[in-house]
UniProtKB/TrEMBL annotation:
PANTHER family: BOX C_D SNORNA PROTEIN 1, BOX C_D SNORNA PROTEIN 1-RELATED. This is Box C/D snoRNA protein 1. Residues 244-258 have a biased composition (Low complexity). GO terms for cellular component: nucleus; pre-snoRNP complex. Pfam families: BCD1, zf-HIT. Belongs to the BCD1 family. GO terms for molecular function: zinc ion binding. Residues 1-35 form the HIT-type domain. It comes from Edolisoma coerulescens.
Amino acid sequence: CETCSKEEAKYRCPRCMKYSCSLLCVKKHKLALSCNGVRDKTAFISVNEFTDLNLLSDYRFLEDVGRTADAAARHCIVHSPATKRLLYCLRNKARGCNIELKTLPVGFTKRRENSTTFNSMENKFYWHLKLVFPHCHAEYTLKGVPDDKTLADILKPYIDPVESDPVVCQRLKIYTASPQSDVRILMKIENRSRNSVRYNELDASRSLLDNLKGKVIIEYPTLFVVLKTLKNDMVVLGRDGSEPAENSDSESSSLSSVEEGEIRDSS
């Protein structure tokens, strides 16, 4: 058992493949890793490991996608003029700020979740924002984040040792115990192949709007908060968009990747 390391394992999680010996250990591993226990139907499988069962699973998955897309296309909201005007306005305003905002069809999870609005009176975006803390397997969703708020202020309630919520602080203690200079904020670069995932590093001292300029966003921004001192798998492009050197240490641009499945719906 990979949870208690005492008993012989009897179960294997379909999602993360962790071995467990009992229902109690299954629940503990789900809580610790934020795992839902549901098999990832889109997980990569090499050709050598591909079986007839995988083929059947893919076929059923595509059937489910087809039914979902058909149901979404028939939904009355899709054809609502008000909805189309709202999305057009958001994309147009984003384009004016040098942000390429892309929206997904109705029925996709990110489209359903997105609560981003634009206040014409204030000429300001209020973003739906997701924060991911890979080292602690934690995610938080923020709504109505003004675009003129700095990333440092956005993160204060989570990783600031003084201002953060006690419960959140305990869960993110790796971050709160680290110097602020070790914190890196990354954002995935969209429109790249799955075997070439790259990230941009954002400036915590600048506003959310300034950091989003020149970026492609699918529905809403997702920010990954990592520490320089802990190894990750995330490859960060340089300021000029150049690839990092292959043999760099953990404090350089090449870190180890943590994010997969966060944006499954948009693939």
